[in-house]
């Protein structure tokens, strides 16, 4: 998810394929390797996406950009003293706000507390900025966690604002949930450093779980999963669903990102790493991730079924999370369904 965050834009797709029906996918990579090959690889990607939506019984909603909410986020950011300059070359959070706005107004549109929605938008915008800084100033990222723990200045005005925002988790969520969100975020920072220090590492064909390990660290999926549940819902009502919720978040993103990544010839991603480790094609990995995402989605719904409010919150989130991908031209999904 984080890699995609750095490139979010305000342009949106202009189609709605609705709820798409499809056949169930094979459950194992070994079985998938025997599936027939579709002549056009884009057709196979399209089938994987439609099967995912059908298995999860989720629509493909497109959400227009909310300029009013964008302005409200910018106003709050300025009131908190965050760097929001707009002149060229400024270290500023302002250019990264659209990605946060889209996330908050799709996946978390069901939250009644507008302050929490704005918090999520700002958090996401900071993550986009962090990834951007990582690309050209690795030292600032290297020092972030240490400086955060020691309450030291970050030597970057935007990252100072990010450190300040992380200390506001308890204002929006319970203590345990806030702690998980904090450690998840710090792990995301560590994942950037891990990526940097292992960029020339030879991939072991026996390290089957490493691609998923690094993927979970880099996506802050614990945080984004927990964002879906407002604080009035008791944490014990939904915490047992967190592992499956996280897998749903990561797998859906990998499946819905694959078309644009494959079209761009990208090979440094979880799908490519899993394909190398298992000795199968990338499409076979995509089918497996899609099936696992659907399985996890069903499991989350079953786990939450005794608690109506938690169940409803996740159901709204899962639909909005699909809508998040549907609403961004970055994913180029309109090319699959045109």
TrEMBL record:
Gene3D superfamilies xref list: Farnesyl Diphosphate Synthase
InterPro entries registered for this protein in UniProt: Isoprenoid_synthase_dom_sf, Trichodiene_synth
Keyword Lyase set for record: yes
Molecular function, one GO term: carbon-oxygen lyase activity, acting on phosphates
Statement: the UniProt record of this protein carries the keyword Lyase: yes
Keywords tagged on the record: Lyase
Family named by the database record: Belongs to the trichodiene synthase family.
Record's protein name: Predicted protein
Organism: Laccaria bicolor (strain S238N-H82 / ATCC MYA-4686)
């Amino acid at each position: 998810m984080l890699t995609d965050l750095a490139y979010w834009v305000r342009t949106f797709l202009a189609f709605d394929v609705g709820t798409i029906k499809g056949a169930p996918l094979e459950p194992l990579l070994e079985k998938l390797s025997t599936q027939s090959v579709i002549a056009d690889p884009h057709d196979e990607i399209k089938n994987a996406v439609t099967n995912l939506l059908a298995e999860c019984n989720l629509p493909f909603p497109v959400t227009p950009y909310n300029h009013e909410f964008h302005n409200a986020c910018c106003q709050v950011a300025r009131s908190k003293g965050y760097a929001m300059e707009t002149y060229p070359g400024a270290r500023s959070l302002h250019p990264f706000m659209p990605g946060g706005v889209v996330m908050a107004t799709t996946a978390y549109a069901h939250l009644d507390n507008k302050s929490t929605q704005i918090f999520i938008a700002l958090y996401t915008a900071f993550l986009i900025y962090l990834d951007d800084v990582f690309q050209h100033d690795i030292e600032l990222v290297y020092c972030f966690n240490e400086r955060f723990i020691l309450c030291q200045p970050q030597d970057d005005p935007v990252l100072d604002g990010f450190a300040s925002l992380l200390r506001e988790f308890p204002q929006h969520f319970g203590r345990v949930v806030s702690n998980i969100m904090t450690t998840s975020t710090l792990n995301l920072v560590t994942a950037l450093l891990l990526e940097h220090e292992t960029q020339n590492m030879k991939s072991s064909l026996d390290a089957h779980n490493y691609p998923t390990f690094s993927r979970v660290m880099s996506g802050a999926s614990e945080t984004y999963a927990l964002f879906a549940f407002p604080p009035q819902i008791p944490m014990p009502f939904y915490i047992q669903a967190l592992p499956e919720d996280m897998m749903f978040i990561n797998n859906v993103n990998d499946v819905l990102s694959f078309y644009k990544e494959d079209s761009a010839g990208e090979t440094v991603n979880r799908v490519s790493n899993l394909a190398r480790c298992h000795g199968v094609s990338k499409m076979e990995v995509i089918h497996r991730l899609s099936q696992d995402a659907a399985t996890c989605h069903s499991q989350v719904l079953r786990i939450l079924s005794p608690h109506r409010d938690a169940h409803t919150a996740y159901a709204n989130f899962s639909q909005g999370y699909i809508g998040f991908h549907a609403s961004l031209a970055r994913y180029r999904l309109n090319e699959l369904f045109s």
